[in-house]
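hi! just following up on the protien thing from before. the input was this:
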Amino acid sequence: MKKILLLSALFIFACSSGDSSGYISNPNNSSAIKIMPLGASRVEGERPNYESYRYYLWKKLKENNFVFDFIGTQSDEAAYPSFNGEDFDSDHEGRGGWASGDIVDGLNDWLEQLETPDVVLISSPGGNDGLENLPFPQAVSNINLIVDILQENNASVTIIIEQMAPARSDIMTVELTNFFHQMQQEVLNISSNKSTTLSNVIPIDMYTGFNDNFLADDVHYNVDGAKFIAERYSELILNVLN
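and the predicted 3d structure came back as:
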């Protein structure tokens, strides 16, 4: 199995912790890396109302000749322009409105239907829990369970977990702001506690630099927001892997 270490400077750019041990492993270097985008509506998207980051991440990785395959039991039926003669790989595992407990309940079934993911991108962990005023400790417990399930499915999986971008400033109540800030720290804790010698859990900062101009509505990305998120993901992925 190949492990490629991420240089400290690159890792500091991509995440808020000082740990420089990030890597993505792929058990078969000759095959496409299987990437599962996991989450709720920010993963799913709903063109033309709001955007997912997936299309722009797909383009960025294709531009850099990265060999990968998006996987998931869901498929985006919106229209996307082809790129370099290829059609958009629209597979994903995003479901609008789902809280962390819903993802826990469904994840094993989804994994049984798919090729084993090498990389999982966990989007806005606990975001809908905060919007729905669900208990913070339960959201943290569920996110830990999601990581456990993914690692039980593949002991060598790499999990990139977002320190999520905020909602629009005028709906960020004191309670919701506290939820978001606490979750940013919990993502660092989960990443540190759940990383193993084979499976690295890498936090990625989607919060710093994100603003209302990147939103199509209260919580969903417009084109600029989707490109912002995709750029953060692509720089981490491309700098972690040769």
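The longest helix spans residues 174-194.
The longest strand covers residues 33-39.
cheers
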